[in-house]
Amino acid sequence: MRLIREEVYKICSRRIVKVSFGVVLAGIVLIFMVIGPWEERCSIGSGESRLDYSGFDAIARDKELAAEFEGVLTDDVVSRMAQTCFFQEYAANGIVTNCNYINTFFTRNGLTDGIFNGPEPVKATRTLPLGSTAMGSLTGEPVYFTYVRGWQVLKELFSVGALLMGVFVIIALSSVFSEEYSLKTISVLLTTAHGKTRDILAKLAAGVVLCVGVFGICTSLMVLLCGCVYGFQGLGCFAGMLEGSWMLSREWMVSVSYISIGAFFVRYFLLALSGLLLLAVFMLFASAVSEQNFTALILGLVFFLLPVLLWILYEMNFMRMSPKVSLFFKSLICCSPIYSCFDVIEQVTTKSMLLFRGGESAAIAIPCLWVMVWRYRNYQG
Description:
Blueprint: H1 2-12, H2 15-35, E1 41-44, E2 51-54, H3 55-69, E3 71-72, H4 75-85, H5 101-108, H6 134-139, E4 144-145, H7 149-173, H8 178-182, H9 186-190, H10 198-230, H11 261-288, H12 293-317, H13 323-334, H14 337-340, H15 345-348, H16 351-377
Antiparallel strand pairs: 1-2, 3-4
Helix pairs in contact: 1-10, 2-7, 2-10, 7-10, 7-11, 7-12, 10-11, 11-12, 11-16, 12-13
């Protein structure tokens, strides 16, 4: 444990690591404000009698409105929602002019006869019976309504926050081995009693501890920001309420519409953490085979960002691929660390994709670990 603590301290004591972590935390707060409170709008009524709110005032008003209808969703409740909060109206450019949490909820969840996602939105004229909608007909049990706007913001915030965490892991771990090479301290370390055994295990453990610690701190910050501003209620509601997406599982997709919001985020967090751990292993490998920190940094960024380029190439050429090649190529990309940061839970949690993900992770991690150990133990400076 002493060696691990020393290695973690050595990584965290570097100025660039301290500054980078501060930037990540500040970036999370700034992004939260941009996509959350600063973006919030709440309009009640229509025409000249309409009352408009923005920012934290809009959040408070939306929470008051949602509290009036909290409980099991029924046809009568949806009808009263429409009477109280009005159907959404659209400007010539398709922008909603009287948006609030309630009418956004029943519009995006398909509880009206309006069209909001077409090239020309159509204002609704009536609500639809729950039994005739995807939400009501596919759940098989009552839908509980409450204010879940905070978890909608968290879902969007976490995808960006996870990317920031990935970049930080690359910066922080790029020097674990390469700094020993550049400072010529590797020769001294290898002559100690446990230099070729415990020292390398301590560096590996320190990388994992740092990755998990950063993930825990940043994720906790994001949850607290969203919970303290919007409220922690609604974790037991259906996850389909986050995006108004109500789909059944298929051969190539596991539906998350009918699990709880809490279970959805547990899956999302575990998926992102697994991607960051794989990235951490690769960064330790990159640092072990690089003489300079900058080289390891470039290798890490290429490994992290390359799947984005591959996805662009895939989108351009998948029509020419056979179904099996297309599926393999898509699976290879979606199981990469960077795509673990995004909300791709439906695509990567099928049994076949979980097996593929495990195989891909092992195919990357095992050679990286073997080369890392061999390179460190046989270093000739």
